[in-house]
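G., before I forget:
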Amino acid sequence: MTVALADNVDQRFAASLANLESGEPPRRRQAIAFLEKLGGLRAFQVASALVGDSDPIVAAAARRICAESSKKGLILRNNLQAQPLAQKILIKDFYQLLDEVVFIIRRNLNRVVMDSFLFSIPKFALVTLIFLCPYFEVLKEVFAEGWIIFPAIFVYEVFWRPLIWSSTGAAVLEGFPENVLRRQSMKMSGVRFYRKILFLDLVESLLYAVVLTCVYAWYLNYFSSLWPAAIFFLFWAMIWVDSSCSTVARILISDSEARILWRSGYIGNFTLAIKLGMVLALLYLMIVGSSVSLLWMFGFDALLNGPILFLFGFVIAADALLDPFVMGYRILLTRLSLDPGCL
Amino acid sequence: MPQELVIHTPENAEIRVPLAGMFSRASAFVYDIGIQLAILFVEHLVFITCLSSYRIGPGIALDSGFVKGLYLIIVFLTVFGYHPLYELFRNGQTPGKRSHGLRVVALNGQKLSFFSSILRNFLLIADFLPFLFLAAVFSTLTTERHQRLGDLFAGTVVVRTEE
């Protein structure tokens, strides 16, 4: 039975839908003719589902409605939302590799920023204390005591850094376009993971802590020069260049006992490591220089004439801001080494 | 956030172009800076040579204020005219962008207008602030289409080409 078309447009539209759902060609043709006459977004939405209809008259009318609507600028976006993320991206050069790190971070920017901020609170607190030194004698005395600062550096580098990996590292992994990798991020938590990354990263983090301790010891006049720091830095850099990605690779594979086959020149690639070092140096310079410029622009010149300790404060702040980028780079390199050439 | 510029044509066709990342852009910029410095060096050499060797007619000496002013205008044009010149007449590509496979286009995918090009390049000064383009980095990281401040004001975007 044909549903009667009422005078009200809404009722007539509803009646047309009912007629279209019926199996009788005359009713369906009458309904699509009404929709063609009605036009607008509602007709467009219905017609877009009928373009491939088995009844050629209905299909032709639906195509006409879609064409007319398109001319008026109407676009149905539900198809676009359903599209999956691109699975393969060709990486041609080093800068595109860095771009890809930024894209990955941007895909999950809120969580990366939030986690990075939360787990950098010790660093930011330290920076605040450093800048408060001129105003509080107690703080100045604390920062002049090696037996307080040196253990603090070791505790942070050895025991706190794995925690950053389990939070910010997981957030970065969630930004990858591949579902497989996104699922891996769930594994980056728990005591077992923490213990694993603590031991895998132990040599690297201990050496880094020694470098920082040497620099601070030089500041406290325990050492007359920066040579000890430079020598330890060299050792640390060699380990970093050669094996910095292995930790993440072991996390990414599902079976902790599985053997990793390095098939690409990305891991331990000396040129890439040197280039990254230069880019990081520039980024540090940009952040430290910008902080100094901002203080100068807003009239805090007095802070700039402060002790050399302030320079540590600026560098630590820059370090906290760049941590997610370095983590993203390491994870991406690891991913590429497992399947070189594409992501 | 999308990593592509989506352009809808009047025919309801959809064109997706990959956006350029900030490191590729920075590298292309450094490349262009190198070329600009080379040009400035040559200009300076020519100016110094002319200054010490020649005089233009009886009235105008090359060390006069007029010639120095002319030299400054040439330097200004080299610094601020380099990017608009290439972007307008070489299809949105400076030599640096060409070497990295990048191109500047308007948000609708069309060629840049004169005003857009001038605006986006003058705003490099704002992008540089407070030091070493931190404003540009922040803006590129946070805006939907990876635009620096100049791009935001001029309605432009840098895309990756497959050439």
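Chain B has one domain: 4-160. Helices of chain B lie at 22-53, 65-89, 95-100, 114-122, 124-128, 134-142, 149-154.

More on Monday.
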